[in-house]
Every structure is written in C-alpha cells, then in structure tokens.
Write a structure and sequence with these properties.
This protein is mainly α. It has two domains: 65 residues, no CATH class; 33 residues, no CATH class. 58% of the residues lie in helices and 10% in strands. The chain contains four helices and two strands. Strand 1 and strand 2 form a beta hairpin. Helix 1 crosses helix 3. It is flat. About 4% of the residues have low confidence.
Amino acid sequence: MDTREVAKEYRLTQWAKIIQTRAQSGQSIKDFCKSAGISRNSYFYWQRKLREGVCAGLVEKGSESRNSIIPSGWAQLSSEADCSESSVTIEISGCRITTTMGTDLGLLVNVCRALRSL
C-alpha cells in the first residue's frame, strides 16, 4: 500500500467518524456542518466517497460469500426453510417495501436510492 492509499484510508476513517457523530447528534446536516465549521459540500462529498467504498467492498466480498456481509447496524436474520415464500420488509424514510425472492433486484436498488434521497 503506497502513501496515497494510506492517506485516503485515513481521510475516509476520519470522515466516517464525523458522519457517524452527525448521525448520533440528531442534528440536521446543515446545522451540524455550521456548528462544526465544515462545508456542506465537503460533507456530502465524503459521504458519497464512503458509500462508494462500502459498495465496492460489498461487490468484491459478495462474489466470495453473500451471507457473510452484514452492514454495520443491521441484524442477520435466520434463514427460513422455504425461501420461495419468505419475504423481507425494508423501511427507508418512512416508506415500507416488502420484497420476495422474485423481486427485480435492479428495481429494488433504484427504489432504495430514490427513497434514500428523500
């Protein structure tokens, strides 16, 4: 790992702490950035970089083992015997989505992105 990669990882770690602090504070992004002296553009830039890094890591690990990846703050549910009838309910920004094994993954990703931006 070269110095650029180390510096990038350090910055990502620092921004992850900042973003986590903001989430735990209960403040809006605007208020938090103002009180912390952080540019909102910087906040959103690093939030996007963190998400991209996590998604890239999930894609890499996903090919190895889909069941071993559990994002922080999520719980692993036990698998049911009959997967054809099982469903998962996702709640984002007050909207609830119920999915089954037959749900179009591309559609689900687009809906989650749209809800997350609300």
